[in-house]
Structures are given as structure tokens and as C-alpha cells.
Amino acid sequence: MINNNFEKNKLISNRYKIIKKIASGGMADVFLGEDLKLGRKVAIKILSSNYSNDRSFVARFKSEAEILAKLDHPNIVRVYDWGKHNSSYYICMEYIEGENLKEIIEKRSPLPPEITANYAIQISNALLAAHKNNLIHRDIKPQNILVTPEGKVKVTDFGIAKSLVPDVTRTLNIMGTAHYISPEQAKGEVLDHRTDIYSLGIVMYEMLTGDVPFRGGTSIDISLKHISEKPLKPSELVENIPPKLEKIVMHCLEKDPAARYSDLSELISDLQKYKTSRPLSFSGTSAKNRGKRRMFMKKIKSAPAVIATAIFMLLFMVLSITYACKYYNYKNFVSSIVSVPYIVNIPIENADKILSPSGLKLKVINETCDPEIPEGFIISQNPEPGEKIPVGSEIGVTVSKGPEITLILTPNLIGLNLEDARVLLEEYGLTTGDIKEKFSDTFRENIVIDQSPKFNENIKPGESVNLIVSKGEEIIVIPDVINQDFITGLNQLQSLGLIVKSSRIPIVEENNINEPGKIVAIIPSPGSKVRANSLVKLMIATNEPLIEIPDFTSQSISTAISVIDSMDLKYEISYIKADYSVQKDLVIGQDPEAYTYISPDSTIILFVGS
Fold it and tell me: Residue 502 pairs with which residues in a beta bridge?
């Protein structure tokens, strides 16, 4: 059984056939599918049944479909269709054969500088297209970057992407993966497109070294390192990294967004020339400023000493006073107002670590039971993340006391073999209850086909889960009922779960062995193996005068009528619309079917093309 009740070969919206699961995520699974209308492979992203009734998750899922649908770019996975199927939602996307970048890094890292730069340029092109549409991705990581066998990069998973119009984006309760988030994202500050540049810098760092710059015991530990610690240079971990490429990566990883690349066009330009002698965009600006200062000092030295000294002192005093005033005002302004960090859904003991660098204080204003948020975790905060407040202010929080009763969510056992299901139940602290067996045309023998309680229902620790296990496909051997009377044979076949249809056949006078009502033949023949609910046909002997009907299909209507008249039978004609012009006035079908027996007063219906 596939998650979300989407079985193999199941049809989505009567068009997309599920083939197999190819990826799993926090809020959705991705399946390989076939578009039956266009005859092509597709990737079908299906929202997990856990979230299909959650309005916020459904809104995010729809938002991703709408975002991808308008981002038509060769380095972004294309969206073909999206909609609702039964109780869940799906997005039908371009299927990319290959691996994600995380798998490539794990198998082949460190990647060569040329490949790193090539992948980074393609990712940058994808993000640049998003930024031009006023969208930031907010979750750039190797797992969301697909690479074809030919080296073509495709960026996917815009599940938490956000528009920059009409208001700037805040992280609120949606954050990217801890290893790849920017410092401003970790602090809950206002975001712009430069947050994607930082995340891309982490991805390049990982391609070059095989590891991310910051690791920690928890997501909070990693987030704090993004905010306060400087990463080691890649060359300190791996030899022979080109200095210019390393400078590009470190420039992307500046803590202050203003110190990074101003946009992705500059980053692409530098990646294209890192192997040349041309200066990088940010280093070139510095050299130009140094050259202006040298020329200014040269002019000062060429003037008479007294005049030069007087001018120099005057300039020094003016600049010093100006700088002091600006610094004093700036320092007082910056030090008095801070942005509120995001501290919801984290342990109370970690909240102080996040607030203290901003000079803010934590105050618990309420504690309440919550069945979803663990004990000691923050449920809500006031003021909200991203608000500007004075240093020294208090952040009031509501803290979870955990659920009132500790319950376990039953695991999904459907599709597992019985032994694996027992092991999984034991791992969850549950026991195996009653086990019943049932024939199944879908599941092979010994596979769990149903459970009670159902998947994801609350259950107390130690309680049991009842299972229904497949006995495999039910196969029936056709018994020999020839020469039995019709009622006896009929009851025997129906008791086996077969569907019985009967037809009469006249007794041949010169070989008058059978009696009326006896079974003369059975189709399929005795000893044949068929599935349950298969159709079986019985031929019943009768002394009634019967006539065998010939096959009239593909004959002209005039020929068919002539034959029927010669047999002294009655007929009716039903004209139906033909698919092809050559079928006009030809018999397309008949009832009863050919080679069956009817009484002389029966009527034959001919279906004729018009």
C-alpha cells in the first residue's frame, strides 16, 4: 500500500496512473506516474493525508502549484496540472530522470570546481527567474535540486516560496532546513532575495567540501551558529580549491545581507570568470576605491608642505566630526531598536539563547496543554516575529504542558508483510491483536491489507492493533458437472463464487443420450483454473425445437434479412451511428449472439450502421 491511500496503478482524476513512489517529504510524497492522455511520464506530488484537512497546508500546497505554473524556465521543474482527488490534493509535474544533488554529493564529493560552478550557475539562473517574478524560494538545499544524467539542473519544491509583493516576507512559522537557512531567516527578520544567495552559498560549500559549514545537536544550535559563527574556508577542509571560487562562496556567506552579492546576475558573472584573470565584481570595486585614495594622496604630496598640511588637517577635522555625529546617532538608533526573533515551536530553554543577542527578555505568561506541541515548547509569542521593538523589552510566550493523555498515533501497516508489521508495532510500544486472513486480488500472500485502529488514529501505549492479512488471489478449479441436472450444477458452481450463465442446446435425435434439463457442456471446461467471480457458461439439453443463429456481423443488411427470411425467423433493426463511413448499412452487432440457439418464434435484433 502506498502512503495517502494511493495504490499502484490507481488513477488520479481519470488521467494519471500511479506507478511507484520515488520520494517522501514532510508534507507530501512524490510518485512516478503516467499521463494516459499524452502518453508521457510525470511526477505526481500528493499532499499527505495528515495535512489534507489543514487549511494552512492546503493553501501552501496550492500556492506551490500556482508559483511553479508561472515560472517557465529550463532550470525549474515545470507544472502541468494540479487539483483535488478524493480527499487529497496533487500537483502533476515534469518528471526528471536522474538524482538529486544531495545524492550526488554523498556519492562523489567533493565535486570538482568546474562541476560546482556549472551547477551553481544553473541554480542561479533558476532563482534569478523566480526573483524577477518577485518570488524568493526560502528553502534552497541539495535535496530540492535535481540533476539529469546529462548534467541539466532543475530546481523544485517551492512549497515555502513567498511573494515579495505587496509586502516584504517574514519567516513567521515557516522556515527552511536548518543547515541551509540564512542568519536573517534564523532570526525571524525581514527577508529578500539575498536569503536565497546565502543558501546557495551553503550548497556550493557542500559541493566543494562534502559537508555543510555548521553542524549541531539541534536545529536551534545550528541556527545560532549561522547567526554568530564564521565558517571555515573550504580550502581549510579540502586542497586545491581555486582561490577565486572560494572567495565567491565566502562572499555569498556574509552574515549581513548587504555585504553579499546584490543580485544573482553578479554571482553568475563571477562564476563564469573565476578561472580567468579578470577581477571578481566585489574585489574590483575595492581596488577602484584604493586607486582613488592613492591618487588623492599623491596630489596632496605634490603641493607645498604648509598648504598640504593645512588642507589635510582641515579635511581630517571635518571628516572626524561628521563621522562622530553619524556614528553616535547610528549607534544610538541601532542599539535601541531590534527585530523580534522567531521562537515558536522551540524549547523554552533555547528561547533565551535566541533572545539574548538582541537584548530581549523572555516572560512566560501562560502554560496550557496541547496535544500537538511537546511539553516545554513555545506555542505562541507576543510581539510577533519581525516586529521592531526597543532593546530590553519582554517577549511574552505561552508554553505547552504537553498532551493531557499520552497517546500513540498508529503506524501505517498496510502493504507490509506480517513479520515486519509485528516488528513495527513493537517499536511503537503496541501489540499485535487478532489476525484474520482474506483473499485479495491486489496483495500477495502474507501482506497486511487492513488494520484496526486505522493509520494515524490515537491509541494508548500497549494496546493492540488487529490485522487482516492477504491469503493471496483466490483460484477456483472448475468442477465436472456434465450430465448433472441444471439445478444441482448451478448450486455447486454458485457456492464456489462463480457467476453462471446458461444456454439451451437441442437433443440430437440419432444420439438421444441426454435428457431435458441435463448439463451437456461447461465453458471453461472442467479442471480449468479461474478467479473468483469469473463467468461460467452451461449448455442445457432440451427437446424444444431450437434454431442455431448464424453470424450476421459485417454482412449487408439486405443479405442478413434474406438469410433470416429463409430461416422463417422474425427480426428487428436498430440503426446506430457508425464510427466509419464504410460501416453504413452493414450489420455491426446482433442479439442473441452468433451460434446460440433460439426458439422459432424468437426475434433477432440487428444493429445496423447509419
Answer: 538
